[in-house]
Hints:
The complex is a heterodimer.
Chain A: H1 2-10, H2 12-20, H3 24-40, E1 48-51, E2 57-60, H4 62-87, H5 94-110, H6 123-146, H7 152-170, H8 197-215, H9 218-227, H10 229-234, H11 239-265, H12 277-287, H13 299-318, H14 326-341, H15 343-365
Antiparallel strand pairs in A: 1-2
Helix pairs in contact in A: 2-15, 3-13, 4-8, 4-9, 4-11, 4-12, 4-13, 5-6, 5-7, 5-11, 6-7, 6-11, 9-11, 12-13
Chain B: H1 2-21, E1 33-39, H2 46-58, E2 65-71, H3 75-87, E3 92-95, H4 104-112, E4 116-121, E5 133-136, H5 139-152, E6 159-164, H6 170-186, E7 189-195, H7 200-212, E8 219-222, H8 225-237, E9 249-253, H9 257-264, E10 270-272, H10 279-291, E11 299-301, E12 306-308, H11 314-320
Parallel strand pairs in B: 1-2, 1-3, 3-4, 4-5, 5-11, 6-7, 6-8, 8-9, 9-10
Antiparallel strand pairs in B: 10-12
Helix pairs in contact in B: 5-6, 7-8, 9-11
Amino acid sequence: MSDRYIKEKGAAGFFKSLFRHQIFIPIAALLLLAIFNLIVDPSFFKITLGYSSDGYPVLSGNLMTIIDYGSELAILAIGMTLVTAASGGQDISVGAAIAISGSVVLRVLCGTDSRPEVLQAPIIVAFLISCVVAMLFGAFNGTLVAYFKIQPMVATLILFTAGRSIAAWINNNELPIVSDKTFTYFGGFIPGVPIPTPFFIALLCMAVIALALKFTNLGLYVQSVGINEKSSRLNGLNPQMIKFMTYVILGLCVAVAGFIKVSRLSSINYSVIAKDIEMDAILAVALGGNALSGGKFNMTASILGAYVIQFLTTTLYKMEVQSAALSAYKAIVVIALVVLSAPVVREKLTDLWKKITGGKAAKSQA
Amino acid sequence: MFKFKKFATLATAAAMCFAFASCGPAQSGGGLIKVGIINNDPNESGYRTANDKDMKNTFTKENGFDASFAYSLKNDEQINHAQKFIQDEVDYLLLSAADTAGWDSVLKDAKEAGVKVILFDRTIDADASLYEASIVSDMDKEGQTAVDWLKGQNLAKYEVIHLQGVMGSAAQKGRSGALDAAVSELGWTMVAQQTAEWNAEKAQQIVQSVIDSGKSFNVIYAENDDMAKGAVAALDKANISHGVGKDVVVMGFDCNKWALEELLKKNWNYDGQCNPFQASYIKDIIDKLEKGESIGEKVVVMDEKGFDAATITQEDVDKYGI
């Protein structure tokens, strides 16, 4: 009897906890993609050391592309996870907000001239101003959601609709182009460092949020508000303030992501910059196994989810899938995920596993 | 209703003012020619901004026009604007339709009211008797000019990355058609053919993935300037040289000013024009109609150039950059 107990704990129990564990989904998806690529073409994982046009060493390859282009999404996923957990809804205006904050960066850098020879302000100033602006827009969303009790998706629909026009207006509908070389470092490479800078920026954001979750009550408060607003108020929390805060934090994430985006091209196109990125950010949260209706969250899983999405995109580009069809493939992933993460299906799966292993155990005993 | 009233008063006031002052050329009735211009949102693209600016600079009071503008990217809103202009009894209705369908009935109303319709930039699916003229770009020709130029470069090999616009748009069809034909006829290699949806970021990722896969290529044929810019950003990152006399030939379309400057610096090789300056063509037609002359062909195709980095001058940049 004790033998069997150990066995169950060893095999079935392990898988049971594995299936239940939230981070299982993104890791499984990541492994699946990795195995798929390994079978189809192992050269997918090749990383080569080359030299940039200035003679500095740079690493390139599909994996580098993934950690490079996945950065913005990972940063957004941080904020989106908090917003989702606290308010039980999603911010669909992040793409438009990126257009705004990117536009602000360029406006400050360029001044009134859309093609300046020298920068009109230090890059750090431009970045900080864009942070403030993006946080203000985040605060606008947050106010609507927390204090006016508007559904998040409806509240953020306002900025979603107006954001790109605001972005165009900030620069008088001109397309500023920054010719300064140092500005390209943030979306490219810092001379001498062979790994793309966006990855470091993403790492920094992750470190900050990890520390915040570990040493402050942010995580606890956000989750308790998301799980039960009333009882958290009865316990002395201010749910409105906490919801509001999450939107401001998301605003900060938006500013960082927008900064990377404009740095990549040293320019901006208001109508298409970060197009549909809000959907990818929400998908990253869902991929991380977080309930989109709020409550408990797992930040690591969300960030992994973001990289899974970029992994998928890069794989599909590699397979030369028509880029117009990319969203269709993403949709398939979403369907699979939603079904998999549904409690009913999960229970069935663990039951099924129990039956298989349980049956075996019974047989061996007989 | 308020808007309409305000507009009507303004228009009458303006007309009276000018009738008395009798500035402007003598027209039938002695006043200004009233034109209603329906365009797409000027924020849509650099092309549209230039187009709108051109219209505003041409149809001025000094030139003898009383112009009203209405903008929308939505067909039904545009139709509402058109009806309003017809009620206001404009002489000419200039139209760049958001959508090709749905214009029959409103154009019939215009005809009955004696309003002459001139289409610009975009054609519509309506009977040709409903409009006086249509001034358009020939996208097929744009593509052909570019591909002919590419043929003329006599490269040792042609390995092309083709970045397409939003699939199904007139610009995409025309610009893709010529290249597709050349690829199949001349045995060029199509390394990658993807739509980047006019989007620089997507173009950058697509070119990045080709570079990562280690395939060789020596031509980037991007169907607009933004996508060419994205492609070049990917090339720069991977230290692949591009431009005149370099490893990769870069081609774009639309002649944005910044793009022509890249040509001037010899970082790109070719940029095809998509002419947004239709106003002078429209003015010619209106002048002819006012004099009672016939205008000949109903569909007017504008002259469009292609610029080669080897021959482009600063003058071209200033004149044709949008």
